[in-house]
Design goal:
heterodimer, A: about 220 residues, mainly alpha, flat, B: mainly alpha, 17 helices
């Protein structure tokens, strides 16, 4: 058996890293700090979980489909308009994304432009949710409610759960707007990036759900 | 300027008010203790329920004083009805699996020690972390309310099998609002755990101190990390399942309810649903849940054993890889809970193979623990005794898994006490031993005081011998054909087994009483225990490099730097036979 011994390395040993410097920062010793990137991994982890949830809903659909009472549901055409709105909102958020860095660096016109595009995105997002609500009203007018048949059940569950997640995204957009319009000292770039990633994911998820709804319901 | 403002955004000051410090706290350590406290309440409640059940099984006609006050309908004259027995069983299982086995080893210890062990000041998202606990707390209250509503607690078991769980009050007592509360509670619980898992994963990936590579993380940190990956996916499946269950119950949909069900002389207005769908969704969560309970215990036990042996394991890496493969395989075995469900027999075969395969990493880990013990100078403490007890329980409970993994044998044993014995030992008691080992080990760090070792050892021997007396006979009962979920076995072929049931009940009462020694030790030591030094067990990981209890920001505003793997024992270090992870001394192998 080999025996290990330890020695201290010759001085100067690796000095512990100093706290970040800068005259605008007042980092007290009794404060907690964290690197700005955690929300970036966090958003991907959240997306992973949401994907898993919708995979569970989808597999429930495949199992449930095997029963004899499976019917067919005519998708309200309004859904395609809503799809276009949601995809457009991804585009407008990217427009904001492109100028946000310059805006945060102090360029006032870039910041205004960025903010404007976020407002447009927010409006489109709200339009999408309102559009989904109208689509439900149209189905209900045909006598198709949540419990009418398995197809309508899954339709409401898919669209409802997705709309709920979009509302989460809308909350994040409102948060971003509040941060951008308020004191920018506390604006975190990664908050914007994470919101954008989530928002695009909502678009992608919706395309997937629309495909499932169109092909299976 | 932009950079500076970014930095400022990530600093938050220590809390001042009592509420911010102790109730709605953002500090991972407080949240960890809150989880542990909640688990403590749940475990003693769950244990009391098991006492009631065991008492009724042994003496079916005996009156239990005061029980009528809890439920007039469930225990008229103090004698438990068969329906109320099922209610107790459901609440026992739900409390234990969700609020104890998930909360204590994973959310409790994980919250407290994961950030410290990787050298972070807090979790990545402290607000989500606080929300995670409080959502879980509300989930607990919602479930607990079921005891006090006229309908009573649900009777469908912790697995809430449909259609019984889905049809509503026509199906019997507890299946109206009782079951609603269960479904709402578990949905909330899922949200809490998802937020928690998100935090654990991001924290481990992003907030590791300088030098803390993934392979330098202690084994228990790895266990929490792998568990959070499992939890993230498992609870993301249980949540949709519970939502569909709630819709079936409250909105009239038919996801899980087939056509033509007549209950309480009423034709149920549902058609086409699939009860098997619930079982698939539930067990797709349910089997990984077993590993959510046991993996953190494996991590804790490895951590404790290494420290007590004063030498590294034969291979810490293999332990980590085994935990990963268990985590991976856990997704392919859910169907082994459904061999008697009427599922296609070919599916049973397909689920049987990965189930048998999962015993390989489990066996490798066991052999590493045992092989590492060979020739080690093990320090016998309460913590190391419970760690050894864990290995013992894991082996004893795991061996019966080989039988149950085979569909042909499982069909005979599935609805019997054999299965109850199996899972209580391998995931229930084993995980509890892991929690207890962790408690005796980390209590000094968490409270700044030592626990009483004599009481700890007494607690171990009562618990160790007691649980074997309770759960080993379950296997014999099962082989004799003693079905589970029945409230009494008086008038049928199982009557000759009654003496064994009485023995088990007495063992359960004594073992349960022994837990009050632990409770006393915990509370007494918290206030009157010997003050704990910074590193009472001469451990190497980062939690031992800071004061006991740690300051609010863990490392006092400093950023620890990690120089070594997690377990440098059996050396000639400057402090003794070990070198701490953050010590800059160089290790020279001669």
């Amino acid at each position: 058996m080999t025996m290990s011994t330890t020695t201290f390395p010759p001085a100067p040993a690796q000095a512990p890293p100093l706290p970040p410097e800068g005259n605008a920062i007042r980092v007290s010793v009794m404060a907690k700090s964290r690197p700005p990137d955690a929300s970036r991994s966090g958003i991907w982890v959240a997306i992973f979980a949401i994907t898993m949830s919708f995979a569970a809903f989808t597999s429930a659909l495949f199992v449930r489909q095997g029963s004899g009472d499976w019917t067919h549901l005519v998708v309200p055409p309004l859904l395609y308009v809503n799809t276009a709105v949601l995809l457009m909102s991804s585009f407008t958020l990217e427009m904001s994304h492109r100028v946000i860095a310059r805006g945060l660096a102090g360029e006032a016109s870039a910041l205004r432009s960025s903010l404007r595009w976020v407002f447009v995105t927010l409006a489109l997002g709200l339009t999408f949710v309102a559009g989904q609500y109208l689509a439900w009203r149209k189905l209900a007018a045909q006598g198709l409610y949540l419990a009418t048949n398995p197809n309508s059940s899954f339709f409401y569950v898919f669209t409802g759960m997705h709309a709920l997640h979009v509302l989460g995204g809308i909350t994040a957009l409102v948060y971003v707007i509040r941060r951008l319009t308020g004191s920018r000292d506390v604006f975190r770039r990664s908050t914007f990036d994470s919101t954008a990633i989530y928002w695009h994911f909502m678009g992608g998820l919706w395309l997937y759900l629309l495909f499932v709804i169109r092909m299976r319901l | 300027m932009a950079e500076a403002s970014v930095q400022q955004a990530h600093v938050h000051a220590p809390p001042e008010s009592f509420i911010r410090k102790n109730v709605f706290s953002l500090d991972h350590k407080t949240i960890g203790k809150q989880y542990y406290g909640l688990a403590l309440v749940a475990v003693f409640t769950g244990m009391a329920l098991s006492w009631l059940m065991r008492f009724h099984l042994a003496w079916p006609n005996a009156k239990i004083a005061g029980l009528e006050l809890l439920s007039k309908a469930g225990a008229p004259g103090g004698v438990i009805t068969p329906e109320y027995y099922l209610s107790l069983l459901t609440m026992h299982g739900t409390l234990m699996v969700f609020f104890v086995l998930t909360n204590a080893p994973f959310a409790g210890f994980g919250n407290y020690f994961l950030p410290i062990q990787i050298g972070a000041e807090d979790m990545a998202f402290p607000r989500f972390n606080m929300m995670s606990f409080w959502v879980t707390f509300v989930a607990f209250l919602v479930l607990f309310t079921a005891f006090f509503i006229p309908d009573g607690p649900p009777t469908s078991g912790w697995t809430a099998y449909a259609p019984l769980s889905a049809v509503g009050s026509d199906a019997g007592p507890g299946l109206g609002w009782g079951q609603n509360l269960w479904a709402i509670s578990i949905s909330l619980f899922c949200i809490g755990q998802l937020l928690g898992s998100l935090n654990f994963i991001s924290t481990t990936l992003d907030l590791r101190a300088k030098g803390m590579t993934l392979m330098r993380m202690p084994i228990c940190t790895w266990a929490w990390f792998i568990t959070s990956c499992i939890g993230l996916l498992a609870f993301a499946v249980l949540l949709p399942a519970c939502l569909l269950l709630i819709l079936d119950r409250m909105a009239g949909t038919s996801f899980f309810i087939p056509a033509g069900l007549v209950l309480s002389d009423r034709l149920q207005n549902h058609a086409g649903g699939s009860p098997l769908l619930w079982q698939h969704l539930f067990w797709f969560f349910g089997h990984p849940e077993v590993y959510i309970a046991i993996l953190p215990a494996m991590g804790i036990v490895s951590h404790v054993l290494i420290t007590s042996m004063r030498k590294p394991l034969l291979s810490a890496k293999v332990i980590i890889y085994s935990m990963m493969s268990i985590g991976f395989l856990s997704w392919m075995v859910w169907g082994h809970h459904m061999f008697v469900s009427g599922m296609n027999p070919f599916s049973s075969l397909l689920f049987s193979f990965p189930t048998l395969t999962i015993t390989i990493p489990a066996t490798i880990m066991t052999l590493i623990w045992l092989g590492s013990l060979y020739g080690a100078n093990l320090q016998i403490t309460s913590a190391s005794l419970f760690a050894l007890g864990f290995v013992s329980m894991f082996v004893s409970g795991g061996v019966s898994g080989f039988f149950l993994a085979q569909p042909s044998i499982d069909i005979y044993l599935h609805a019997t006490y054999f299965v109850v014995g199996h899972f209580h030992m391998v995931m229930g008691v084993a995980a509890i031993f892991g929690i207890l080992s962790g408690t005796y080990f980390w209590f000094p760090k968490m409270s700044g005081r030592m626990m009483n070792e004599t009481l700890g050892k007494l607690h171990f021997w009562i618990t160790f011998v007691g649980t074997y007396c309770i759960f080993m006979p379950f296997h014999y009962l099962g082989m004799a054909g003693n079905v589970r979920r029945y409230s009494s076995f008086v008038d049928d072929f199982m009557a000759p087994l009654l003496p064994l049931h009485k023995f088990i009940t007495i063992a359960a009462l004594i073992t349960g009483a022994g837990q009050f020694i632990f409770l006393y030790n915990l509370i007494h030591s918290r206030f009157r225990g010997k003050p704990a030094p910074q590193n009472p067990w001469n451990g190497t990981s980062l939690e031992w490099s800071i004061p006991s209890p740690p300051p609010w920001n863990n490392f006092g505003g400093k950023h620890p730097v990690v120089y070594h793997d997690s377990y440098q024992y059996g050396l000639k270090g400057s402090k003794g036979d070990y070198v701490m992870q953050d010590s800059p001394e160089q290790i020279v192998t001669e």
